[in-house]
Amino acid sequence: MIKRRTIIDACDTILDYKHLEMKEDGTTFCNFGIDAILRLLGVVCFFNKKKDRLMMANEMVEFMEGSERFTEIPFEESIDSDDLIILGLRKDTNGDGVIDEKDHGHVAIVYPTGTNRSGKWGCVCPLVANIGPKNGVMGANYAFGMKPQAFRYNV
To answer: What is the pLDDT of residues 77-104, one digit of tens each?
Structure first.
């Protein structure tokens, strides 16, 4: 089991990386942020060997859906958990009904220190270490436009 304090320390380290801030053209780096945090925790799983590159957010969610290393859990179970949990939302940004590698979703790691009340979603949400338009610790409802899927890492 990865300790809560270790997850917090890894998130804090990566959230401080200036090269993961949003670029002027709107490019964001949630996939790089997640990968960097996980590597600090000794977890390496999001490199696509066939494409010889890091997975994009949509690909990460698809990988977690079909992997024995992750278990999808109800969103509510991501709150106040001691486990390593990744939230992910696949997105069809083209509006063509097909999620492909040009489409970009979002991923974030649950920051296991508290919760945030969401009027938008009508529920309590976990805090996340978010790498996106704004990097930092925030409620999942600020990091995602809609409620994401939740995945527990199986140690």
So the answer is: 999 888 999 999 987 666 666 566 666 7
Percent helix / strand / coil, the chain, rounded to 5: 30, 30, 45
Q: Which fold, 4-153?
A: endopeptidase fold (from Nostoc punctiforme) (3.90.1720)
CA 37, 42, 43, 44 torsion-angle sign: positive
Integer CA distances (angstroms), 119 to 63, 124, 139, in order: 31, 9, 11
- 27 contact partners, CB below 8 Å, separation of at least 6: none
* pLDDT at residue number 35: 97
Strand partners, 126: 115
Tell me the domain boundaries of the chain. 4-153
